[in-house]
Design goal:
It is built from 17 helices and 38 strands. With about 675 residues, the protein is α+β, with helices and mostly antiparallel strands. A hairpin with a 2-residue loop joins β11 (about 220-235) and β12. The chain is globular and about 85 Å long.
Length: about 675
């Protein structure tokens, strides 16, 4: 076995690889950018080497710098994790030319599967079923539009070098084809340096089911059963599970055999995934699946396969890369549980799943789940990388138990300092269709309104936030508040005491765009509160929530000018306005277009003085290699255009100012 390896990655997957490698007695070298100098993968590694500034193009994508770091530290092999250089055949060749071992497949295997069009041709020759479509070299827009008409709408435009939903557009109407084609080509070029696309028939009730395969350098290949990744938004996976609901033994065998056949066709060695699109309109049947693509690396969702089979896939990677044989034959592998994985992200779901940033002021994971993470409390989610906080994994004997455990674990996860998709993930866990296993890739899009419906804040919760902001004791005339040293402060029994009329404390709070004002007074042995929402009048006085030491009371956490309240419905983060600041300079009335996140201005479609209509596309902003179109909030004229293509902007930057159109 290797004595030392270098991990050419960061975050959660780097920590995951280090954990297994160190358990096997292998020392690990981490690499890091300036933004990751104090990151967890750096802290847990045996050694760490700086490779450049924060942007990935100046750090984690610099293959020559990473190889030099491996040579300088005496590493024998490089593990790429997923993303970055993991599927770059030129990097593989450079690693091997330097006398190092690449912990993954050969450059030839990666090239064979790296371009979706060529891979589909190869699979057809290997008698693996493929989706009807055009996978050729002709890229003329008119020709591709004609091919789309031949295939029949809806169609899917896909960057041939794509992955993770990037460079992919679903088109339902021929009139939208040209614009969608341009967007897919541009996103493919930005993400992979390749704007070449292919056109495929869009399956109307599609399920995304993939097979985990593993090969060694001695010609052996096995599959480790399937994962269902149908729960997606924008073609990106949200919750994965294994095994797939409704899967028959006959279909599992057919898909497994097809996946092994695909891997053997390219002499595959290492961990890989064969992704299939499945027609779920009439249940699962053995001739209703088609090859979609192969990921020649370890997948983000690999933990669900690990927990249902009892196999450590990273351990297998190290064994195979060291010229070892596969540890198990096909007939020794079995499914022993049902598992789910939820991808917990820093993202603003109500704003269209926009990636978010912020410092994790409070972070506590559930003890009732496996939590694969690359961050701890105090770490910062930056705009430079994928905003994943953790993968929350649960497993049990039955699907129902595992899903219930996932919902519970997400509810027990406490995060403050950035918005997350935790509430959205919990809503999916209790979605009626998903709970029954009735799922396809369009579920989230169809039910997005119900899944993202905001929770109405009760007055009691707002009052609790106000009391936390005011740092008021919870038991007037009580026994005092525990100081934390086994004693109580005797002066707390006087909280709210007055010889005259009871005083009233007032606290203002903001929650997103909502503004609250809370009044609090002492009334006998309890606190009473009244809440004013926006310009409404105060509600009637009501008795405050129970003392927060009660087991069923919400937890609270204060930091900077924030108060976070943790409840079963999710985390509610209130902002305490600075009383010394004047009224905020509003940009209301729909007069501005503001950057909803840090990003790169890819395209500006308008100019100063131009008249625009409500909903018209004005600017295309790229964040984390995904494009977001910013539209006009109303009809008007561009009075101020503050950015140009190529500009980097921060969250909250005013990009465009509108004025009324004459006439």
């Amino acid at each position: 076995m290797f004595s030392k390896i270098l991990i050419a990655n960061r975050g959660e997957i780097a920590c995951r690889i280090i954990r297994t490698a160190q358990a096997m007695g292998v020392d690990c070298v981490a690499v890091y950018s300036d933004a990751d100098a104090k990151a967890q993968h750096v802290q847990v590694a045996d050694e760490a080497v700086r490779i450049g500034p924060a942007p990935v193009g100046e750090s984690y994508l610099l293959g020559d710098v990473i190889i030099k770091a491996a040579l300088d530290t005496g590493a024998e092999a490089i593990h790429p994790g997923y993303g970055f250089l993991s599927e770059n055949p030129n990097f593989v060749e450079s690693v091997e030319e330097a006398g190092l071992i690449f912990i993954g497949p050969s450059a030839d295997a990666i090239r064979a599967m790296g371009l979706k069009d060529a891979a589909k041709v190869l699979m057809e020759k290997a008698n693996v079923p493929v989706v009807p479509g055009y996978h050729g070299d002709m890229q003329d827009a008119g020709f591709l539009a004609a091919k789309a008409n031949e295939i029949g709408y809806p169609v899917l435009i896909k960057a041939r070098a794509g992955g993770g939903g990037k460079g992919m557009r679903k088109v339902e109407d021929p009139k939208d084809f040209a614009a969608s084609l341009i967007g897919a080509q541009r996103e493919g070029e930005a993400s992979f340096g390749d704007g070449h696309v292919l056109i495929e028939k869009y399956i109307t009730a599609p399920r995304h089911i993939e097979i985990q395969v593993f090969g060694d350098k001695h010609g052996n290949v096995v599959h480790l059963f399937e994962r269902d990744c149908s729960l997606q938004r924008r073609h990106q996976k949200v919750i994965e599970e294994a095994p797939a609901p409704g899967m028959s033994d006959e279909m599992r065998s057919a898909m497994g055999e097809a996946a092994v056949k695909a891997a053997k066709a390219i002499d595959y060695a290492g961990a890989g995934t064969i992704e299939f699109i499945v027609d779920g309109s009439q249940g699962l049947y053995s001739d209703g699946f088609w090859f979609m693509e192969m990921n020649t690396r370890l997948q983000v969702e690999h933990p669900v396969t690990e927990v249902i089979t009892g196999v450590d896939l990273v351990e297998w990677q190290l064994i195979v890369a060291n010229d070892g044989y596969l540890p198990m034959f096909q007939d020794e592998l079995s499914i022993n549980a049902h598992a789910f994985e939820a991808r917990l992200y820093a993202e603003d779901v109500p704003k269209g799943f926009l990636p978010a940033t912020g410092t994790l002021e409070y972070l506590e994971f559930s003890d009732n789940a496996r939590n694969d993470s690359g961050v701890i409390e105090g770490d910062t989610i930056t705009p430079f990388y994928d905003p994943m906080i953790a993968k929350v994994i649960t497993y049990a004997e039955t699907r129902e138990e595992a899903l219930s455990d996932l919902e519970t674990a997400l509810g027990e996860t406490r995060i403050a300092g950035t918005v997350t998709n935790a509430a959205f993930l919990r809503a999916l866990c209790v979605h009626e269709g998903f709970a029954k296993g009735d799922v396809d890739t369009g579920l989230i899009e169809r039910d997005i309104e119900s899944l993202t419906k905001p929770v109405e804040l009760p007055d009691e919760l707002i009052a609790l936030a106000a009391k936390e902001a005011l740092q008021m004791p919870f038991t007037p005339n009580g026994k005092g508040v525990d100081t934390g040293m086994g004693e109580t402060d005797p002066f707390d029994v006087l909280a709210g005491f007055s010889n005259w009329k009871a005083p009233i404390w007032t606290q203002k709070l903001n929650y997103g765009d909502e503004v609250f004002q809370v009044q609090i007074r002492r009334h006998g042995e309890v606190w009473q509160c009244a809440v004013k929402r926006g310009d409404n009048t105060f509600c009637k006085w009501f008795t405050d929530l129970e003392c927060k030491s009660q087991d069923d009371s919400p937890e609270t956490h204060s930091f900077k000018n924030k108060v976070a309240i943790f409840t079963d419905e999710g985390t509610f983060e209130f902002t305490i306005p600075d009383p010394l600041e004047g009224a905020a300079q509003g940009t209301g009335g729909g007069n501005t277009v503001i950057a909803p996140m840090p990003g790169l201005v890819k395209q500006v479609n308008v100019s100063s003085g131009q008249k625009v209509s409500e909903g018209e596309a004005l600017i295309i902003l790229e964040a984390m290699k995904m494009e977001h179109t910013l539209t006009a909030p109303r009809e008007g004229v561009i009075a101020e255009l503050n950015v140009a293509a190529g500009d980097q902007v921060q969250d909250g930057t005013i990009l465009i100012v509108l004025e009324e159109a004459d006439g």
